[in-house]
Design a protein that fits this description.
- The chain has 13 helices and nine strands.
- It has 341 residues and is α/β, with parallel strands linked by helices.
- It has one domain: TIM Barrel.
- Helix 6 runs parallel beside helix 7 and helix 10 runs parallel beside helix 11.
Length: 341
C-alpha cells in the first residue's frame, strides 16, 4: 500500500506504527512510504544513518518497506514558472518564493531519498520527473522549432547528476509517467532516455491508470518498455468520453470528468492481462496499491484492495502444461520429421 493518500493527523493514520498495524490487519504485506512526510520518517536522518533505517523497519509491525516514494521531491527538480506558486507548498518554507533555491533543495532531497533507499537495502525509488514543457503540451500556438528538444536537454541536465548519484548507490529512479510531468507517456520517456544518454538508472514506475486516461495501450506498453519497469502501482481508472468532454476533461471536477481514477475493480483496467504481462517480462518487484477514487471512501477501498491484488498474483509454472504429450530430444528423429536425410 502506498501510504500518501491515507496519512492524516488522527489515528490510525498519523504515525508509522499506527498506519502499518491498520494496513497489516487488512492483509497488506508491505508499505510504500512517501519519504517527504515527516509523520512517517525523517528523510535526512535516514540518508545519514543505517541504524536509523534499521530502527524505522522495526516500527512497521512486521510489514516490509517496499520503496521510498519521492514523487513530490522529483516534481520540484523542474518547475515551469507558471506553476511556481502552486508547487511552492511542496517545498520547505525557507525556499518558497525562490525557484533556484527550491530546485537546489529538491536535488538535495532526491539525493537523501537515494541514500535512504540504499540504507534500507532497497534498489528503487518511484518519483516524478517535474515539467518544463507541460504548458506547451498541445502545439497551439505553434511551438517554436527546437523548444521540445531544449526542454528535454535541460530536464536531462538537471537529472543526470542525480541519476549518476543513484548509480553510485545501486538505486534506480522509476519515473511515474503522469500527466503534468514532462515524462507522461512512452514517447516522452524515450525523449528523456535519448537526452540522458540511455542512463542505466532511468526507469519506470508502471501505473496503467494514467495510460487509460490518455487512451493508450497500457498492456502493449509493458511489452515495449518491460526492461525499464522497476516499480508498479496497481491503480484503476475509467475513461468515458461523452458529448460534452473527452481527454481534457472540460475543466470539470473529478466526478464529472470522463477520465477519472477509481478504486480497484471499479474501473476498466484489465488487471488479469496486466499481471500476466508483468509476469511475462519477469517483473520481480512489489505490486503496490495506490488508492484514489472520487466515488468510494478510502476505508472501503483499502479493505477491498489487498484481496483484489492477491487474486491477481500469478505463480509461475514449474513445468509446461503440455509436458504429458512431450518426448525426449532425439536428433535423428527430429531430422527424420523435418525430412532431412
Amino acid at each position: 500500500m502506498f501510504l500518501a493518500q491515507f496519512m492524516g493527523d488522527e489515528a490510525p493514520f498519523n504515525t508509522l506504527p499506527n498506519i502499518t498495524k491498520y494496513m497489516k490487519d487488512l492483509g497488506y504485506l508491505g508499505v510504500q512510504i512517501p519519504c517527504w512526510d515527516a509523520r512517517l520518517m525523517n528523510l535526512k536522518q535516514a540518508a545519514e544513518s543505517k541504524t536509523y533505517c534499521d530502527d524505522l523497519k522495526g516500527l512497521t509491525n512486521g510489514l516490509a518497506i517496499t520503496e521510498l516514494a519521492s514523487h513530490l521531491l522529483g516534481q520540484l527538480v523542474a518547475v515551469h514558472p507558471a506553476y511556481d506558486d502552486l508547487f511552492d507548498s511542496f517545498a520547505a518554507p525557507e525556499v518558497r518564493g525562490n525557484p533556484q533555491a527550491r530546485t537546489e533543495w529538491a536535488v538535495q532531497q532526491m539525493k537523501y531519498a537515494i541514500q535512504a533507499t540504499a540504507n534500507l537495502g532497497l534498489t528503487v525509488t518511484p518519483s516524478f520527473s517535474g515539467a518544463l514543457l507541460w504548458p506547451f503540451m498541445y502545439p497551439w500556438p505553434q511551438r517554436p522549432a527546437g523548444l521540445v528538444e531544449e526542454g528535454f536537454k535541460e530536464l536531462a541536465a538537471r537529472w543526470k547528476p542525480i541519476l549518476d548519484f543513484a548509480d553510485q548507490h545501486g538505486v534506480d529512479i522509476a519515473y511515474e509517467l503522469h500527466p503534468g510531468e514532462d515524462l507522461h507517456d512512452g514517447a516522452s520517456f524515450e525523449m528523456m532516455l535519448a537526452a540522458a544518454d540511455n542512463h542505466p538508472r532511468l526507469a519506470i514506475n508502471y501505473d496503467p491508470s494514467h495510460f487509460v486516461l490518455q487512451g493508450m495501450d497500457y498492456i502493449g506498453f509493458i511489452d515495449h518498455y518491460g526492461s525499464r519497469i522497476k516499480a508498479f502501482h496497481v491503480k484503476d481508472a475509467e475513461f468515458r468520453p461523452d458529448a460534452r468532454a473527452g481527454v481534457y476533461g472540460g475543466y470539470q471536477g473529478w466526478t464529472s470528468r470522463p477520465g477519472r481514477f477509481r478504486s480497484l475493480g471499479d474501473g476498466e483496467v484489465d488487471f488479469g492481462q496486466v499481471f500476466t504481462r508483468m509476469t511475462a517480462i519477469g517483473y520481480k518487484g512489489w505490486a503496490v496499491l495506490e488508492w484514489e477514487c472520487c466515488f468510494k471512501d478510502s476505508v472501503q477501498g483499502a479493505a477491498e484492495g489487498a484481496p483484489f491484488i492477491v487474486s491477481h498474483l500469478i505463480d509461475v509454472p514449474t513445468r509446461s502444461f503440455d509436458d504429458f504429450a512431450g518426448a525426449a530430444s532425439d536428433t535423428a528423429r527430429n531430422r527424420k520429421i523435418l525430412g532431412i536425410s
